[in-house]
Design brief:
The complex is a heterodimer of chains A (220) and B (218).
Chain A lengths: L7 H4 L2 H35 L2 H15 L3 H11 L9 H26 L3 H9 L4 H31 L11 H12 L2 H31 L3
Helix pairs in contact in A: 2-3, 2-5, 2-7, 2-8, 3-5, 4-5, 5-7, 6-7, 7-9, 8-9
Chain B lengths: L5 H39 L1 H16 L3 H14 L6 H26 L3 H9 L4 H31 L11 H12 L2 H33 L3
């Protein structure tokens, strides 16, 4: 039998794909905001906090970076109900993505923070800025600028990793792809379309963040 | 129903972890070969082939590994190529990892000063000789640490093979969790085993980085 490809039976399901893509982008956006906040707090704690806190953050970062995302997700979604924490698929996905991104972003940010010249902090101290002011106004903006490309890459990696969230029935893009595939049995074409959709999203998110970062986050 | 003690859980998981290790090694070796081939094509193949390799890298870095697995396992089966879960996982991980490795190594080769290529070309060395005798020994030193570090990503990537039904550490964890009704403990143990596999690799990558950075003349 010659190979016959039929993409129309997938493309007529475009509302499903679009919904899935919107979910994927939405999950990523929320996880990015929360994860970045977590990472900033952790990076601060790791370079300025007391020793036990530093150790705690270090353990968190290493634990997350050395275990697969899917195991983290399953632990949260299937494991936590055992101690009474029952999360919806979407909440569990966001939590897992946030914790995951937080750990990687902590390491990335720390590299930027440690590259701050000592003299800048001393100059800020001599201007009687508080420690919080020094961190948010003097240390953080240039650190963000330095590590922005790495951070954007990590956000894209987390977005692509979120395909796994379909396994706990979060209705994101891979879930939509699987659903379409189970309706038309055209697995080959469907997964190609799914892959291309992810590729488009990845390029879109990367371009958008590379454009937005310098404009809104660490300006001028 | 037999009772599962913590020891039983850990023992069964450790047995399944052998498949995680086997899959990681197969994928890592496969991707090293493919990655090196792609690197050579990119260095010597002219602009069009170079662009093709760039597109390959973009494709595999810009799409989820899970989708690649689905395409190779369910997709190929739907058009008449039956693949086993082991084969699909091996091929998908090899393609995925080779895209990253070739990009990492390209960076390492690019870090070698242009003059080294020119000097060796002026000695009438062929491309193969230039690469083999002049560039490779220098690039290898820079490449060791990030390559070892990337191995961690490969090991973690193998966890996705569980989704297409390949019984490795994560899949075994899911099966045990279903039998014991103790998902928290089981997935905790699964995470612990991954950590035991990956953390030493991470540490050695960091150590190598520091060691090689110190030896590099300023």
């Amino acid at each position: 039998m010659p190979l016959q490809l039929d993409f129309t039976s997938i493309l007529v399901q475009w509302p499903l794909l679009l919904r899935g893509a919107a979910w994927t982008v939405g999950l990523t956006a929320v996880a990015t905001l929360l994860g970045a906040a977590l990472a900033i707090a952790c990076a601060w704690a790791r370079s300025n906090g007391p020793a036990p806190l530093r150790w705690l953050v270090g353990t968190y970062v290493e634990l997350i970076r050395n275990t697969p995302f899917i195991v983290q997700l399953f632990f949260i979604f299937f494991g936590l109900p055992e101690i009474g924490i029952r999360l919806s698929p979407a909440t569990a996905s966001i939590l897992a993505m946030t914790i995951n991104l937080g750990a990687y972003a902590t390491e990335i940010l720390r590299a930027g923070i440690e590259a701050t010249p000592r003299g800048q902090i001393e100059a800020a101290e001599s201007l009687a800025l508080t420690r919080a002011q020094i961190f948010t106004r003097v240390v953080l903006p240039p650190a963000l600028r330095k590590v922005w490309p790495a951070l954007v890459s990590q956000i894209v990696i987390v977005m692509l990793g979120s395909a796994v969230c379909g396994q706990i029935s979060t209705e994101e893009l891979s879930y939509a792809t699987n659903l379409i595939q189970s309706r038309n049995f055209r697995a080959f074409e469907t997964y190609i379309v799914g892959m291309l959709a992810y590729l488009g999203l990845a390029i879109l998110v990367r371009t958008l963040l590379n454009w937005a970062g310098p404009r809104f986050l660490f300006g001028r | 129903m037999p009772d599962f003690t913590l020891w039983d859980i850990l023992r069964n998981l450790a047995l399944a972890a052998r498949w995680t290790v086997a899959l990681s090694l197969a994928a890592f070796l496969g991707s090293a070969v493919v990655g090196l081939g792609l690197l050579l094509v990119r260095l010597a193949g002219g602009p069009w082939l170079g662009r093709a390799v760039g597109a390959y890298v973009q494709l595999f870095q810009g799409t989820p590994l899970l989708m690649q697995l689905f395409l190779l396992y369910f997709g190929l089966a739907a058009v008449g190529f039956d693949t086993s879960a082991w084969l699909a996982a091996c091929v998908a991980l090899t393609l995925y990892a080779s895209a990253y490795l070739t990009e990492i190594w390209r960076g390492c080769v690019a870090a070698i000063p242009r003059g080294q290529w020119e000097a060796s070309a002026s000695l009438a060395l062929s491309f193969g000789q230039q690469f083999r005798h002049i560039i490779l020994p220098q690039a290898l030193r820079i490449a060791v640490a990030p390559t070892v570090g990337f191995l961690v990503q490969v090991v973690k990537g193998t966890a996705l093979a569980s989704v297409i039904g390949f019984v490795e550490l994560t899949k075994a964890g899911g099966m045990i969790a279903n039998v014991t009704y103790e998902p928290m403990l089981t997935y905790g143990c699964v995470a612990l085993l991954y950590f035991v596999l990956c953390f030493p690799i991470s540490l050695s990558a960091r150590l190598l980085e520091r060691k090689l950075a110190m030896r590099t003349p300023a």
